[in-house]
Design goal:
Elements: H1 3-14, H2 18-22, H3 27-46, H4 50-74, H5 79-103, H6 107-136, H7 141-144, H8 159-171, H9 176-199
């Protein structure tokens, strides 16, 4: 919901350092390091290490924001880089809730976690297939001016909201079940919103 403004803020913050980092690290390597940090967050959460898990998550999100800024700064943007970035994101988005549940196992946590991941599965299809149609019709990033590889149709829960929810999962693992249910229901809202949005446009 707030991704556009936060992405602009992120670009302004990283703009002074991105060229220097780009001389040493390829953006795709930064994406892979972000993936490793995200998996570390999930593993640490599974071991009940709340503080280190959250710290690894912060590193993951920082690197995930940095890779695109570096790519633009050094002129190495590529479709593969964008693809690698989003694949890494989805691996981490799946792994972290599993790690949280393993760290605080209970029947309620497993049920809520399964519901959340199921909504993610449908949400991913609702976003990616719609984005593909919009790109094919030349209604994607070239038309909207978005600084992403493919267009991001409107959503209640997008990147910034996901960062907030996942931070809460990691910092308050005992509260994970109700947080999973809440986020999952909002993601269902995403799916319904996109269907209504798409009906009048495609």
């Amino acid at each position: 919901m707030f991704d556009h403004w936060l992405r602009m803020l992120k670009d302004r913050l990283f703009e002074p350092i991105a060229p220097a980092i780009g001389r040493w690290l390829h953006p795709n390597l930064i994406s892979l390091l972000a993936l490793l940090a995200g998996l570390a967050a999930a593993l640490l959460a599974a071991r009940g290490r709340t503080g280190p898990a959250f710290a690894a998550w912060v590193v993951n999100r920082t690197l995930d924001g940095l890779d695109g800024s570096v790519a633009r700064a050094v002129g190495s943007q590529s479709d593969f880089g964008g693809y690698l970035d989003i694949m890494g994101d989805f691996v981490v988005y799946a792994a972290v809730p599993v790690g949280v549940v393993l760290g605080q196992p209970s029947e309620s946590a497993w049920r809520a976690g399964l519901f959340l991941l199921a909504t993610f599965f449908v949400n991913a299809a609702s976003w990616m297939y719609l984005a593909a149609i919009l790109e094919r019709r030349s209604l994607g990033v070239a038309a909207t001016g978005e600084r992403t590889t493919i267009t991001m149709p409107p959503a209640i829960v997008a990147g910034s909201e996901t960062v907030v929810f996942y931070s809460l999962f990691l910092l308050l693992p005992a509260w994970a079940p109700p947080l999973f249910w809440l986020m999952g229901m909002l993601v269902v809202g995403n799916i319904v919103l996109r269907l209504a949005w798409a009906k009048g446009r495609i």
